Amino acid sequence: MTELAQALLDAHVHYEVSRLRGASLDALIDERLHRAFEWLETVELGEVVTREQIVGVIERYVIELRVSGGITELAGEMANVVFSSRVSASTRVGDMVEVSSYEDFAEKIVSLSGVHQELVRYLMQSEAFATLASRVVSRVLLDLILESDEGRRAPPLKAVVLSVVNRAVPGFERRLGAALSAYVERHAARFTREGEKHLRDAVDPVWVRQMADEFWDAVSTKPLSDATRVFTPQDLEDFVVLGYEFWQKFRKTPYFHAVVTDVVRHLFEKYGRESLASLIGDMGVTEQMVSAELRTFLGPLFEHAFRTGFLEQEVRAHLAPF
Q1: CA distance 124 to 251
Q2: How far is CA 274 from its chain centroid?
Q3: How far is CA 137 from CA 19, 155, 177, 192, in A?
Q4: Per residue, what are the HEC states of the chain?
Q5: What is the pLDDT at residue 73?
Q6: Which residue pairs from 195-202 have beta carbons closer than 8 angstroms and sit at least 24 positions apart in sequence?
Q7: Would you say 279 and 91 are in contact if contact means Cβ atoms under 8 Å apart?
C-alpha cells in the first residue's frame, strides 16, 4: 500500500471511529433511524417476508430449539429469590393489585354465569365427586349420631344409650358407619342429581361476588410472603420443571403447529398489505423508543470497544479492502 493510500485509510478509519463515539454517535443514531423509519413507511410486510419464512422461524426457535436445563434451573432459583425477597415481606397483595382492578376482575367473574353453570354440571357429574360427597355425608351423619360437639362431653342420655347399644351390639359404630356408607352410595345418583339442582340455584351472581369479596378481603392485606407461604422453595422449582416438561411436549403437538399456522395466516391477512411501520407502530414501538435504547446500550458498548482497540481494528478491517 502506498503512503498516500495508507494516509487516506488512516484518516477514513479515524473519521468512522469518531462517528461511533459520544455526541456523534447520538446524531448518527437519530439520522439513520429516522431514515429507516421513513423507508419502512413504503415497505409492505408481504414484500420482504413470506408466511412460510415466519412459520420456519417459529419451528426452528420455538418448536425445535432445545432449551438448556440450566435455564430451567435458573428460572426456579429466580422464583425463589422473588418469593424470599425482603420486599415481599413488606409489600401487601393490595399494593400490587389496585382495588379498581380487583373490582373489574370480580365483575367479569360474576358475569360468567354460563361458566359457573358448566362447572357445576361437570363437578356434579364426576364419579370422583359423587364418591367424595357420599363419604362426607355418611361421616357427618355418623358424627351427629355418635360424637359430641367440638370435643364437649356427650349429653348424659345420649351417652347411656350409646353405652347400652355398644354392649348389646358389639362393633355397633363400625356397623352403623358401614350401613350409612352403603345407603348413601346406593342413592348417590339421586343425591348428585338433586345436589346439582340445589347447587345451580345457590351459585348465583350475588353468591359469586360475595365469595370473591371475602377472598379479596382475606388476602389483600397480607404481605406477599404470607400469601405465598404455602409454597416451599422445592414446590416452586417443581412447578417450573413441570411447566418446562409440559412445554417441551406441547410445542411438538400437531395442535400447536396448526395454531401457529393459523396465527401467521391471520397476521398476513391483517398486515400483509400494510407498511412495516404500521405493524411496528401497532406493537407499540416508536422511533423515539428505539433511539433511546440504542443510545443506552450502543454508547457504552462502543466506548469499551474503542478503549480495547477492537473498534478501530474492525473499522480498519472493513475499509482496508476498498
Answers
A1: 33
A2: 31
A3: 81, 23, 11, 12
A4: CCHHHHHHHHHHHHHHHHHCCHHHHHHHHHHHHHHHHHHHCCCEHHHHCCHHHHHHHHHHHHHCCCCCHHHHHHHHHHHHHHHHCHHHHHCEHHHHCCHHHHHHHHHHHHHCHHHHHHHHHHHHCCHHHHHHHHHHHHHHHHHHHHCCHHHCCCCHHHHHHHHHHHHHCCCHHHHHHHHHHHHHHHCHHHHHHHHHHHHHHHCCHHHHHHHHHHHHHHHCCCEHHHHCCCCCHHHHHHHHHHHHHHHHHHCCCHHHHHHHHHHHHHHHHHHCCCEHHHHHHHCCCCHHHHHHHHHHHHHHHHHHHHHCCHHHHHHHHHHCCC
A5: 79
A6: 195/124, 195/133, 196/120, 196/121, 196/124, 196/125, 199/120, 199/123, 199/124, 200/117, 200/120
A7: no
Whole-model pTM? Answer: 0.67
Q: Any residues with CB less than 8 A from the CB of 303 and at least 6 apart, and which?
A: 21
CB 20 within 8 A of CB 318: no
Max Cα–Cα distance, the chain, nearest Å:
122
Q: Please write the tens of the pLDDT for every residue from 103-142.
A: 999 999 889 888 888 888 887 777 777 777 777 776 676 6
Q: Judging by beta carbons within 10 Å of its beta carbon (0-12, 13-18, 19+), is residue 155 exposed, middle or buried?
A: exposed
Distance CA 30, CA 36 (A): 10
Rounded CA separation 311/301 (Å): 10
Residues 279, 291: Cα–Cα separation, whole Å: 18
Q: Is the dihedral of CA 17, 23, 26, 28 positive or negative?
A: negative
Give the residue from 241, 269, 243, 255 showing the smallest Cα distance to 63: 255
